[in-house]
Amino acid sequence: MKHWFRKPLQFLFLVMGLSLATALWSSIQLLNSQAKNSYEDAVKILTAYETEIIISKKNKLIPIESFAKLRRAGWLVTPILEGKLPSQNSITILGIEPISISEASSLLDGLFRNGENLKEFVIKKNIGFATQETVNSLGKLPLGLQMSVDESLLTNVLITDISVAAKILGHQGEITRFELTGPASSNRQILEKLDLRLVPSNSQADLEQLTESFHLNLSAFGLLGFIVGLFIVYSTLNLAFEQRKTTYMALRSIGVPVRTVYTSTLIEILVLALTGGIIGIFLGHWLASSLFPDVAATLNHIYGANLGNQLVLSMKEIFLALLMPVLGSLLISTNFILKLHKMAPQNLNALMAGSKLYDNKIKLKLSTALILMGLTLILTTSPVGLFKSFFIIGLTIIIAATLLPIILRVGLSFLVSSIKKKLPLLHWFLSDSVHQVNRISLSLNALMLAVAVTIGVDNMVKNFKETFNIWLEKRLITEVYVKVEDQNKAELLMNGLHNEHLVKNFYPITSLKISFNEQLTTIVGFKPAEIYIKNWPLVKSNKQTWEKVQNGKGVLINEQFFYKYGLGIGDIIKLDSLLNPEKKVRYEIVGIYPDYGNRLGQIMMNIQSFQDYYSKDIPLNFALEIDPRSYDSVSEMLLSKYGLLDVEIINQSTIKEFSTQIFDRTFAITNALSDSMIVIATLTILTTLITLSEIRLANLTPLWVLGIPRITLLKFELAQFLMLTLITLFFAIPTGLLICHFLTNYLNVAAFGWKLPFQFYPMIWIQTLLIASLGSLIAILFPSILMFKNSPALMIGRYKNDF
Amino acid sequence: MEPIVKVNGLSKSFESSGEIFQVFEELSFNLAQNSATALIGESGSGKTTLINILAGLEPPSSGMVMIAKNEIWNYREPDRARFRLKNMAVIFQQYNLIPSLNVSSNISLHSQLIDNWDQSFQDELIKLFGLKNLLMKYPEEISGGQQQRVAIARSVLTKPKILLADEPTGNLDEENTMSVLKAFEMLLERCKSTILVATHSKSVANKIKSKLILKSGRAKK
Ligand SMILES: Nc1ncnc2c1ncn2[C@@H]1O[C@H](COP(=O)(O)OP(=O)(O)OP(=O)(O)O)[C@@H](O)[C@H]1O
Ligand SMILES: [Mg+2]
């Protein structure tokens, strides 16, 4: 251990390397779980209106007295009065009852998590909460309200006490609906008596699926972060121990028992790992929370879910965070001890000849890489499961990490032999670079993997966003979507919508769950009209696709169905008719469409065929094509004329805008994370170079004493690192894309049955490369300049004392 | 003829842990062109230090060093380095081979850098020092004595105006020591070099007439 007292700087950087790796890993973990939470909250908001509510049977306002009656009957409800501000139609006023609503976990969580707001609300009746934007657009409306800004709310929503809202809306003593704040009571008679009805929630299962998929990808990202961190730990410790080989050999040659050397090494390395790890946890925490306030704030802004400004450190997280440095150091020490073991004590020379030994292994490594590549190829051609896709991603990383130093070495060696002796300095430069690759290949690999993972994950996230947009587009074929519960309303719509001049067109949609190959499958009946032909996304189709759908012979299937049964275009499926149990209906598959977020297989057919063989029920869903500007009047018309509820009308463009925003914020977190991964990887380069600077000095001193000016050597030094780093970075692009490819096209298919669309985003690569180059440049400059600043004395000392 | 190396009033002291340690003081001597001089003195007397100062590697505390009419310690560091590259060759006690080059490249690098490389001379030296079988090896793969011979071959190959050798035979057997002396003779004959050899070896010192003795801080000629 004396080693460290002699070289405090090295020690410092070693611990720094370890803690940075841990910090990276633990902050990824933390932010991942936070991103998951916030994303989940986002979904909650998207489905906010799907919490169970109680409304009037006759779709009228409900007298406030019902509130007390319901509560007494055991219903945990809170009253809500909702309406448009008479003077400013774009703003919704939401009157609430603060005490009972605070029981609910709803979109107002954010507002009331902070107890102050609740207190204020209760004490001062005439207070209103809204975002700054809303407050601004409220302007000087004479509402007589004291406004309090809260960014956790939705824009254009004004929250007031229910009595205040009643005054403003002119509905004294009345409310719009009750929201359940707890499980539904079994006492249903009271609802009848009060002429109320419970509207059950129909949660958006597909969005939940999408969420799960996102979670899985985040977990994959976490895993990749772990691997990168492991690399950083490994490379940091490796260097430290390479340098001490001689000391160990000396110890052994003076007769210190092998076991003593081993145990002391192991203990030392574990102490180091734990020290670095613990510092790293705090660092990671700090990193996460410093990235987080910003993200949290924006998240709050959108969906009012308060993520809590405190990131909680759980035992599990600590354990996982420490696992990495400990695992890394165990790995390295095992490797190192094996190496030591192979060397007889008298073989000091061979030990020093590390680079030559390496040379012999190059063929071995190359063949290993090739074999692994073959294995990966074989694996990818056969069907891929979840475990297998993780395995493939792991293989990709190993292959890339094996190949990078080989490519660098072989390429440089080739240059060396082609340049020969005409340019002696260049010749030296390249030969030296080959040797340098051996020393820093681990850190170069860490950088390469960090950049590759960043590119891969960023690309994946971008793909995800794209996917989500497609998912939205698909559901946004029309401006309005109507979803009703009962047949009466549906019939009314079916018969009446023709005559509405505000509705350009409407398309009924109906669906059923059937069993196909003993698995639950959804069949959907729709009208294959022009608007579908134009807009419905298809991943596979042919010229006759729509023609066959229109004549009822062809059906479209979703990707999940395709992957599940391996049935593709041109294949025939036979379905049992529900209306005529004897009959099997034959359909030809004519198209495949993406259906992100849905786990079930789905078959879409002409609604005519659906009604012939499956159900004559009137469709409950309708897509309404309207002029987007007339949304308000259309919804007004649907409400008043057809007795629809607010919750039955879906304004698609609002949803779209809203969800896109949420996605953007969630992705902001992953972006911040992947960027910090690069920064940490460049810091590894820095620590490596500082650790190496002594060796470098020993390499450069002979040239200086021959008479090469130091400034020339400095230039060479910089050029060398830049060259190696740039090659490394470029190598990272294909690696990253491969990782992304496996993430989106294998992992997702395995877990959820759909492929994410795979696209290239060169801007991401360029951006990532820029960040990485800049970071590496700084990492290179610092130790090089440090090394050369006071080098004459150092160099003299070096070659005099310690060769 | 004007001496090629003039040293006047040269002093060197080190400061370590507050104490000043005087290696030598007011050292003055000249080296004539095309001559060989043995630098003799007990271990720690400052031989290496003196050679470093002459080579422009380590600054003197005071005094003047004039080499071929160049007062090297008045130069800026890069110029001094270039001067060293062009005019001098130094054989170090610790060899200072370049780890990333093989023996062959190590031998030729310096002379190639100053565009003074001579294939036949190189072959001659390789033969003389018995390095033929080591050419493709790297410094770390050969013994100390072998490294020392490579270092000597490298320096001699540059046909330097001035050759500074610090204990060049420290690790060598009798036969190789003779080869070294032979190489020095070649330089004296063919290239009119000036040679300063720091040595403990009686046999080397005896072969060289002119002697410079470092003793308790004074050079005696
Ligand atoms: N960097 C330094 N700092 C302090 N003292 C030094 C330094 N370098 C050398 N010395 C001291 O200066 C004296 C001369 O050292 P030098 O290496 O020149 O001796 P030498 O004559 O070459 O010895 P040897 O024959 O053993 O090689 C020694 O006493 C040494 O301890
Ligand atoms: Mg000496």
Q: What structural category do the secondary elements of chain B indicate?
A: alpha/beta
Superfamily (CATH H level) name of chain B: P-loop containing nucleotide triphosphate hydrolases
Strand residue content of chain A: 5-15%
CATH topology of chain B: Rossmann fold
Q: Work out the oligomeric state of the chains in this entry.
A: heterodimer
Low-confidence stretches of chain B: none
Low-confidence stretches of chain A: 298-311, 348-358, 798-803
Shape summary of chain A = globular
Average pLDDT metric of chain A: 76
Residue fraction in strands of chain B: 25-35%
Main β-sheet description of chain B? 6 strands, mixed
In whole angstroms, how far apart are the ends of chain A?
21 Å
Task: Quickly count the helices of chain A.
Answer: 26
Helix tally of chain B?
Answer: 7
Distance between the termini of chain B: 19 Å
The number of domains of chain B: 1
Radius of gyration of chain A: 33 Å
Q: What is the count of β-strands of chain B?
A: 10
What best-fitting shape of chain B do the alpha-carbon axes yield?
Answer: globular
